[in-house]
């Protein structure tokens, strides 16, 4: 490896990661998309017909929002849902400050088909890539959104889904997975900015890769993905980035690569933090799954929005 040039090393990282991962999204069209409606301020819920099923999402619109606004898609983790994500990660409050829309789609069976994970959506090959991109289109038909400022983030299984969307679509200006890894083929991805946030003591999605701890005793599949730093390295290769610089502040270490065309690939590691959204709210899902207390060393939501705000497509 030491004898390879930088470009060859980058290509090798992508090739190795692509060989590890599998995935095949479907191509379908949204039906029943409501048009010409005005989205009211505050919280609202909607459903669309997609691939023969009624799929739902929640939307938050700040008061006084005018013009073409940014849109953040927030994907809940396994065993969660859109309402839980809206409560737990305080994106509505961030949207009030930053003047953007937030969508909270609901996964079928409280999970997402992120590739080789997770649960029934992956087993049944549910077209979640199509559903989420259709959700963005539906919102865009109802209110003005800035197509250069559409972003996606997610927690755990939702983080894996956000990475699959970055691999399989080109509508997101930046993606920010939290406590997730890549479990899909990303060999055809287009360059995009990526921010990963991950606790080094995560037992469910191990920072150093490999099988994670099963969250429930009902046979739920364990996550088995590459190391988080390898995922970041793969995106640096996709974005043709130089080697990253590193800074540390207490338990938080940040590796940042400034890439061509204003893109950035960044990894924020929180020492000794477990499977969590740092700075979030501990709710019944975390209690039921027996997950560790949340770190207060970082406000993941504010950190992600500041990253998103700096990156346009």
UniProtKB/TrEMBL annotation:
Any one cellular-component term (Gene Ontology): extracellular region
InterPro entries linked: AB_hydrolase_fold (IPR029058), Esterase_phb (IPR010126), Plant_Biomass_Hydrol_Est (IPR050955)
Keyword Hydrolase: yes
Residue span of region Disordered: 205-226
Any matching Pfam family: Esterase_PHB
Keywords for the protein's UniProt record, in alphabetical order: Hydrolase, Signal
Top-level division of the source organism's lineage: Bacteria
GO MF annotation, one: hydrolase activity
Entries under PANTHER family matching the protein: BLL1128 PROTEIN, UNNAMED PRODUCT-RELATED
Protein name: Polyhydroxybutyrate depolymerase
């Amino acid at each position: 490896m030491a004898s390879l040039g930088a470009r060859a090393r980058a290509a090798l990282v992508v090739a190795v990661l692509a060989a590890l991962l599998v995935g095949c999204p479907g191509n379908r069209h949204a039906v029943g998309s409501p048009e010409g409606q005005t989205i009211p301020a505050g919280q609202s819920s909607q459903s669309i017909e997609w691939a023969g099923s009624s799929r739902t999402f929640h939307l938050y619109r700040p008061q006084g929002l005018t013009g073409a606004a940014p849109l953040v898609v927030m994907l809940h983790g396994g065993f969660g849902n859109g309402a839980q994500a809206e409560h737990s990660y305080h994106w509505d409050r961030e949207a009030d400050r930053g003047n953007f829309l937030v969508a909270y789609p609901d996964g079928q069976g409280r999970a997402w088909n992120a590739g080789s994970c997770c649960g029934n959506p992956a087993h049944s090959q549910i077209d979640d890539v199509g559903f989420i991109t259709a959700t963005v289109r539906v919102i865009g038909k109802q209110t003005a959104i800035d197509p250069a400022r559409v972003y996606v983030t997610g927690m755990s299984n939702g983080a894996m889904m956000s990475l699959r969307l970055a691999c399989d679509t080109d509508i997101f200006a930046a993606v920010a997975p939290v406590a997730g890894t890549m479990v899909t083929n990303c060999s055809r991805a287009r360059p995009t900015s990526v921010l990963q946030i991950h606790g080094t003591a995560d037992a469910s999605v191990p920072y150093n890769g490999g099988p994670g701890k099963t969250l429930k005793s009902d046979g739920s599949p364990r996550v088995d993905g590459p190391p988080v730093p390898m995922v970041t390295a793969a995106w640096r290769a996709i974005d043709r980035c130089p080697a990253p610089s590193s800074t540390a502040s207490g338990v938080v270490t940040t590796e940042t690569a400034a890439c061509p065309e204003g893109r950035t690939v960044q990894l924020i590691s929180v020492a000794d933090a477990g499977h969590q959204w740092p700075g979030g709210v501990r709710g019944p899902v975390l209690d039921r799954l027996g997950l560790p207390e949340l770190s207060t060393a970082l406000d993941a939501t504010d950190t992600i929005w500041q990253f998103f705000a700096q990156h346009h497509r």
